[in-house]
Amino acid sequence: MPRLDDIVSFLDTLLQTAETPDYGPALNGLQLANPGEVRGVAAAVDYSMAGVDGAIAAGANLLLLHHGMFWGGAQPIRGVAYERLRKLLEHGVAVYASHLPLDRHPAFGNNVLLARELGLEPAGEFARYKTIAVGVRGEADVATAELAARARRLAESHGGTVVSTPHDASRRTRRWGICTGAGASSESLQEAAALGLDTLVVGEGPHHTGVEARELGIVVIYAGHYATETLGVRALARHVGERFGVPWTFVDAPTGL
Ligand SMILES: [Zn+2]
Fold first, then answer.
1. CA 243/CA 135 separation, integer angstroms
2. In this structure, which residues have their CB less than 5 angstroms from ion ligand 1?
3. pLDDT tens for residues 125-141?
4. pLDDT of residue 54
5. Residue 25 CA to ligand 1 centre (angstroms)
6. Where do runs of H (alpha helix) occur along the chain?
7. Which residues contact 147 (CB under 8 A, 6 or more apart)?
8. Would the pTM count as exceeding 0.85?
Protein backbone atom coordinates (compact mmCIF):
# COMPACT_ATOMS: atom_id res chain seq x y z
CA MET A 1 0.00 0.00 0.00
CA PRO A 2 1.27 3.49 -0.82
CA ARG A 3 2.26 5.77 2.03
CA LEU A 4 0.19 8.87 2.71
CA ASP A 5 3.36 10.99 2.83
CA ASP A 6 4.30 9.89 -0.69
CA ILE A 7 0.89 10.76 -2.10
CA VAL A 8 0.91 14.11 -0.30
CA SER A 9 4.30 15.13 -1.71
CA PHE A 10 3.22 13.92 -5.14
CA LEU A 11 0.10 16.12 -4.94
CA ASP A 12 1.95 19.12 -3.48
CA THR A 13 4.37 19.05 -6.42
CA LEU A 14 1.76 18.32 -9.09
CA LEU A 15 -0.57 21.10 -7.90
CA GLN A 16 2.13 23.61 -6.89
CA THR A 17 0.35 23.82 -3.56
CA ALA A 18 2.95 25.96 -1.76
CA GLU A 19 3.41 28.46 -4.60
CA THR A 20 -0.27 29.12 -5.30
CA PRO A 21 -1.95 32.04 -3.49
CA ASP A 22 -5.45 31.45 -2.11
CA TYR A 23 -8.02 32.64 0.41
CA GLY A 24 -6.91 31.84 3.97
CA PRO A 25 -9.55 29.22 4.87
CA ALA A 26 -8.66 27.17 1.77
CA LEU A 27 -5.61 25.83 3.69
CA ASN A 28 -4.44 23.85 0.67
CA GLY A 29 -2.61 20.57 1.19
CA LEU A 30 -2.93 17.86 3.81
CA GLN A 31 -5.55 18.98 6.35
CA LEU A 32 -5.93 15.79 8.36
CA ALA A 33 -3.40 12.96 8.62
CA ASN A 34 -4.10 9.25 9.05
CA PRO A 35 -2.02 6.40 10.51
CA GLY A 36 0.17 6.32 7.40
CA GLU A 37 -1.03 4.16 4.49
CA VAL A 38 -3.63 4.68 1.77
CA ARG A 39 -5.85 1.84 0.55
CA GLY A 40 -8.29 3.90 -1.52
CA VAL A 41 -9.01 7.46 -2.63
CA ALA A 42 -12.33 9.30 -2.67
CA ALA A 43 -13.03 12.76 -4.04
CA ALA A 44 -15.80 15.22 -3.21
CA VAL A 45 -16.37 18.88 -4.00
CA ASP A 46 -17.26 19.88 -0.45
CA TYR A 47 -16.46 18.83 3.09
CA SER A 48 -19.78 17.36 4.16
CA MET A 49 -21.23 14.40 6.02
CA ALA A 50 -22.31 12.95 2.65
CA GLY A 51 -18.73 13.17 1.40
CA VAL A 52 -17.31 11.59 4.55
CA ASP A 53 -19.91 8.80 4.57
CA GLY A 54 -19.40 8.16 0.86
CA ALA A 55 -15.63 7.86 1.27
CA ILE A 56 -15.98 5.44 4.20
CA ALA A 57 -18.62 3.35 2.38
CA ALA A 58 -16.23 3.02 -0.59
CA GLY A 59 -13.44 1.84 1.71
CA ALA A 60 -11.32 4.91 0.94
CA ASN A 61 -9.05 6.42 3.57
CA LEU A 62 -7.86 9.48 1.67
CA LEU A 63 -10.48 12.10 0.88
CA LEU A 64 -9.63 14.76 -1.72
CA LEU A 65 -11.70 17.93 -1.44
CA HIS A 66 -12.03 21.14 -3.42
CA HIS A 67 -13.58 23.12 -0.56
CA GLY A 68 -11.74 21.81 2.49
CA MET A 69 -12.50 21.27 6.15
CA PHE A 70 -12.03 24.91 7.16
CA TRP A 71 -14.04 26.57 4.38
CA GLY A 72 -16.52 28.17 6.79
CA GLY A 73 -13.77 29.57 9.03
CA ALA A 74 -13.09 28.68 12.68
CA GLN A 75 -16.07 26.93 14.22
CA PRO A 76 -16.57 24.87 17.38
CA ILE A 77 -16.23 21.12 16.84
CA ARG A 78 -19.62 20.01 18.08
CA GLY A 79 -22.85 18.64 16.59
CA VAL A 80 -22.41 17.73 12.91
CA ALA A 81 -18.85 19.11 12.88
CA TYR A 82 -17.94 16.73 15.71
CA GLU A 83 -19.63 13.76 14.01
CA ARG A 84 -17.80 14.34 10.72
CA LEU A 85 -14.44 14.57 12.43
CA ARG A 86 -15.16 11.59 14.71
CA LYS A 87 -15.97 9.43 11.66
CA LEU A 88 -12.81 10.50 9.84
CA LEU A 89 -10.62 9.71 12.87
CA GLU A 90 -12.42 6.46 13.66
CA HIS A 91 -11.86 5.19 10.10
CA GLY A 92 -8.39 6.69 9.72
CA VAL A 93 -9.40 8.85 6.76
CA ALA A 94 -6.94 11.56 5.76
CA VAL A 95 -8.11 14.76 4.07
CA TYR A 96 -6.25 16.67 1.35
CA ALA A 97 -7.77 19.91 0.02
CA SER A 98 -6.97 21.81 -3.15
CA HIS A 99 -8.85 24.97 -4.07
CA LEU A 100 -7.19 27.44 -6.47
CA PRO A 101 -4.25 25.10 -7.17
CA LEU A 102 -6.82 22.66 -8.57
CA ASP A 103 -8.97 25.31 -10.29
CA ARG A 104 -6.05 26.49 -12.39
CA HIS A 105 -4.19 23.22 -13.04
CA PRO A 106 -3.46 22.74 -16.77
CA ALA A 107 -4.40 19.04 -16.81
CA PHE A 108 -6.71 18.42 -13.86
CA GLY A 109 -8.09 21.91 -13.34
CA ASN A 110 -11.81 22.64 -13.10
CA ASN A 111 -11.48 25.40 -15.67
CA VAL A 112 -9.60 23.47 -18.36
CA LEU A 113 -11.86 20.45 -17.91
CA LEU A 114 -15.05 22.53 -18.03
CA ALA A 115 -13.87 24.11 -21.29
CA ARG A 116 -13.34 20.68 -22.84
CA GLU A 117 -16.66 19.43 -21.46
CA LEU A 118 -18.29 22.31 -23.35
CA GLY A 119 -16.37 21.54 -26.54
CA LEU A 120 -14.07 24.56 -26.15
CA GLU A 121 -10.27 24.59 -26.39
CA PRO A 122 -8.47 26.93 -23.95
CA ALA A 123 -5.91 29.23 -25.55
CA GLY A 124 -5.15 31.68 -22.75
CA GLU A 125 -5.68 32.78 -19.20
CA PHE A 126 -8.60 34.51 -17.53
CA ALA A 127 -9.66 35.59 -14.02
CA ARG A 128 -6.44 36.99 -12.55
CA TYR A 129 -5.96 36.52 -8.83
CA LYS A 130 -2.78 37.91 -7.24
CA THR A 131 0.10 36.15 -9.06
CA ILE A 132 -2.01 33.58 -10.93
CA ALA A 133 -4.89 33.19 -13.37
CA VAL A 134 -7.65 30.92 -12.13
CA GLY A 135 -9.67 30.64 -15.35
CA VAL A 136 -9.16 30.11 -19.05
CA ARG A 137 -10.27 31.78 -22.25
CA GLY A 138 -10.33 31.06 -25.95
CA GLU A 139 -12.05 31.55 -29.27
CA ALA A 140 -14.88 29.65 -30.89
CA ASP A 141 -17.78 30.05 -33.29
CA VAL A 142 -20.75 28.49 -31.59
CA ALA A 143 -24.32 29.60 -30.90
CA THR A 144 -24.48 31.01 -27.39
CA ALA A 145 -27.71 29.04 -26.89
CA GLU A 146 -25.90 25.83 -27.84
CA LEU A 147 -23.15 26.59 -25.33
CA ALA A 148 -25.81 27.17 -22.66
CA ALA A 149 -27.45 23.85 -23.62
CA ARG A 150 -24.12 22.01 -23.19
CA ALA A 151 -23.64 23.68 -19.81
CA ARG A 152 -27.18 22.69 -18.86
CA ARG A 153 -26.43 19.01 -19.52
CA LEU A 154 -23.53 19.13 -17.08
CA ALA A 155 -25.51 21.11 -14.48
CA GLU A 156 -28.50 18.79 -14.62
CA SER A 157 -26.35 15.70 -14.29
CA HIS A 158 -25.33 17.08 -10.87
CA GLY A 159 -28.72 18.21 -9.61
CA GLY A 160 -28.42 21.83 -10.75
CA THR A 161 -29.57 23.99 -13.61
CA VAL A 162 -28.32 26.79 -15.85
CA VAL A 163 -29.29 30.44 -15.81
CA SER A 164 -28.17 32.77 -18.60
CA THR A 165 -28.41 36.52 -19.03
CA PRO A 166 -30.78 37.40 -21.91
CA HIS A 167 -29.63 36.83 -25.47
CA ASP A 168 -31.40 36.18 -28.76
CA ALA A 169 -31.37 32.85 -30.56
CA SER A 170 -29.05 33.98 -33.36
CA ARG A 171 -26.28 35.23 -31.08
CA ARG A 172 -22.90 33.56 -31.50
CA THR A 173 -20.07 33.15 -29.01
CA ARG A 174 -16.70 33.98 -30.50
CA ARG A 175 -14.50 34.98 -27.57
CA TRP A 176 -15.24 33.21 -24.30
CA GLY A 177 -13.91 33.06 -20.77
CA ILE A 178 -14.47 30.46 -18.06
CA CYS A 179 -14.18 30.78 -14.30
CA THR A 180 -15.73 27.93 -12.32
CA GLY A 181 -17.31 28.33 -8.88
CA ALA A 182 -18.03 31.90 -7.80
CA GLY A 183 -16.62 33.16 -11.11
CA ALA A 184 -18.87 36.14 -11.86
CA SER A 185 -17.90 39.38 -10.13
CA SER A 186 -17.45 43.01 -11.11
CA GLU A 187 -13.72 42.30 -11.42
CA SER A 188 -14.10 39.30 -13.74
CA LEU A 189 -16.61 41.19 -15.91
CA GLN A 190 -14.27 44.18 -16.23
CA GLU A 191 -11.42 41.85 -17.12
CA ALA A 192 -13.63 40.10 -19.69
CA ALA A 193 -14.58 43.43 -21.25
CA ALA A 194 -10.93 44.53 -21.40
CA LEU A 195 -10.05 41.25 -23.15
CA GLY A 196 -12.91 41.66 -25.63
CA LEU A 197 -14.73 38.51 -24.46
CA ASP A 198 -18.40 38.20 -25.45
CA THR A 199 -19.43 35.21 -23.31
CA LEU A 200 -18.54 34.03 -19.81
CA VAL A 201 -19.28 30.62 -18.34
CA VAL A 202 -19.13 30.63 -14.55
CA GLY A 203 -20.52 28.67 -11.64
CA GLU A 204 -22.41 31.47 -9.95
CA GLY A 205 -22.36 35.17 -9.20
CA PRO A 206 -24.31 37.91 -7.44
CA HIS A 207 -27.36 39.44 -9.11
CA HIS A 208 -25.58 42.68 -10.00
CA THR A 209 -23.28 40.76 -12.34
CA GLY A 210 -26.29 40.17 -14.58
CA VAL A 211 -26.89 43.92 -14.82
CA GLU A 212 -23.23 44.70 -15.46
CA ALA A 213 -22.88 41.94 -18.05
CA ARG A 214 -25.79 43.25 -20.07
CA GLU A 215 -24.38 46.74 -20.12
CA LEU A 216 -20.98 45.45 -21.22
CA GLY A 217 -22.54 43.36 -24.02
CA ILE A 218 -21.40 40.12 -22.40
CA VAL A 219 -23.62 37.08 -21.91
CA VAL A 220 -23.01 35.17 -18.70
CA ILE A 221 -23.96 31.51 -18.41
CA TYR A 222 -24.26 30.52 -14.74
CA ALA A 223 -23.87 26.72 -14.76
CA GLY A 224 -23.82 26.13 -11.00
CA HIS A 225 -21.04 26.38 -8.44
CA TYR A 226 -21.22 22.69 -7.58
CA ALA A 227 -21.51 21.24 -11.09
CA THR A 228 -18.65 23.32 -12.51
CA GLU A 229 -16.33 22.11 -9.74
CA THR A 230 -17.02 18.38 -9.92
CA LEU A 231 -14.59 17.83 -12.81
CA GLY A 232 -11.22 18.66 -11.26
CA VAL A 233 -11.34 16.76 -8.02
CA ARG A 234 -12.76 13.73 -9.81
CA ALA A 235 -9.97 13.75 -12.41
CA LEU A 236 -7.42 14.18 -9.64
CA ALA A 237 -8.73 11.17 -7.68
CA ARG A 238 -8.60 9.06 -10.81
CA HIS A 239 -5.03 10.16 -11.51
CA VAL A 240 -3.88 9.38 -7.94
CA GLY A 241 -5.71 6.04 -7.98
CA GLU A 242 -4.07 4.96 -11.23
CA ARG A 243 -0.64 6.30 -10.34
CA PHE A 244 -0.51 4.61 -6.92
CA GLY A 245 -2.51 1.50 -7.82
CA VAL A 246 -5.40 2.02 -5.39
CA PRO A 247 -9.16 2.17 -6.10
CA TRP A 248 -10.73 5.61 -6.45
CA THR A 249 -14.25 6.97 -6.35
CA PHE A 250 -16.10 10.27 -6.71
CA VAL A 251 -18.76 11.01 -4.10
CA ASP A 252 -21.46 13.11 -5.75
CA ALA A 253 -23.18 15.27 -3.11
CA PRO A 254 -24.98 18.04 -5.04
CA THR A 255 -25.90 21.22 -3.25
CA GLY A 256 -28.40 22.24 -5.95
CA LEU A 257 -26.48 25.53 -6.33
ZN1 LIG B 1 -15.70 26.82 -5.34
1. 26
2. 181
3. 999 999 999 999 999 99
4. 98
5. 12
6. 4-15, 49-57, 80-90, 100-103, 110-117, 144-156, 186-195, 208-216, 225-228, 230-244
7. 118, 120, 140, 173, 176, 199, 201, 221
8. yes
